[in-house]
Design brief:
One of its GO terms (molecular function) is dioxygenase activity. The chain is of the alpha+beta class. It contains 8 helices and 15 strands. A 7-stranded mixed β-sheet has the order 1-2-3-13-5-15-4, covered by helices on one side. The chain starts with a strand and ends in a 7-residue tail after the last strand.
């Protein structure tokens, strides 16, 4: 029998007793968990790539990057060609903030884990919005924020050379509402490492506001930390859950396999 328990008051569900992740009733429970709890965990499921893809496709269309549906996550250059840029994952972020429609969900399966560090933090931007004082809801309601790849990469390398900076700036920027008015009536916050500046605001005031908001959103009461073990499956709602990797050694064997599910709700 499949049983579940919450991971923290603000977010997350852990399922136990899962023998067939493709079972219709389990997939339905996963979809509900993603909508209302944001993160789901099944420990020791040991999905291979084929089964991880099959499960992901039950949640929606899988993104293929350069024809690749399974994406290796590692900061070890021997394991990942994008290891350099993945260091940006050590900072709180949502994926796809520079796209019109962000990815809906992400799945990760642990193939190898770090000896020390390498966990993943999650924070609910739904819960953070719901807990905002009314004066702050009014303050943020009409603000718009420009998101950029450059903003996230400057956290990794604050003093880039001209060539690197030019490469960052080939990536598109995107202006979105700070408060995302969701089609189901809920509200979430669009923030994180890619948040470059608040439109029309003094740069210093803009940076102070964005840092204040991120500190609010990532309070411990809105968070959960997952410590990986080989075989774990974690899935999260990328549209409402900030995430970040916790530091680990670059030469670590840590390797996660990721799929991403195509989004179906544009930023508003």
């Amino acid at each position: 029998m499949i049983e579940s328990k919450v991971l923290s008051p603000a977010l997350g569900v852990e399922f136990t007793g899962v023998t067939d992740p493709l079972d219709d009733s389990f997939v339905h429970r996963c979809a509900e968990a993603l909508k209302w709890r944001g993160v789901l965990l099944v420990r020791g499921l040991h999905l291979d790539d084929e089964r991880q893809l099959a499960f992901s496709r039950r949640l929606g269309e899988v993104v293929a990057l350069n024809g690749q549906e399974i994406f290796p996550i590692s900061i070890n250059p021997e394991k990942s060609r994008t290891a350099k840029y993945l260091k940006g994952a050590f900072f709180w972020h949502l994926d796809g903030t520079t796209d019109d429609v962000p990815v809906k969900a992400t799945t990760l399966t642990a193939r190898e884990v770090a000896m020390t560090g390498g966990g993943t933090d999650f924070a609910s931007t739904y819960a953070a919005y719901e807990a905002l004082p009314e004066k702050d809801r009014e303050r943020y309601a009409s603000l718009r924020v420009v998101h950029s790849f450059e903003a996230a990469q400057r956290l990794v390398n604050p003093d880039p050379g001209e060539q690197e900076l030019a490469a960052w700036r080939t990536q598109r920027t995107h202006e979105v509402s700070l408060v995302w008015r969701r089609r189901d009536g809920r509200r979430s916050l669009v923030t994180g490492a890619t948040a470059d500046h608040v439109v029309g605001m003094d740069p210093g005031d803009s940076r102070a506001l964005l840092e204040e908001l991120l500190d609010w959103t990532t309070q411990e009461r809105f968070r959960h930390t997952h410590d990986w073990a080989v075989g774990d499956l974690v899935v999260w709602d990328n549209t409402g859950i900030l995430h970040r990797a916790l530091p680990y050694d670059e030469n670590s064997q840590r390797l996660l396999h990721r799929t991403t599910v195509v989004g179906d709700e544009a930023f508003a």
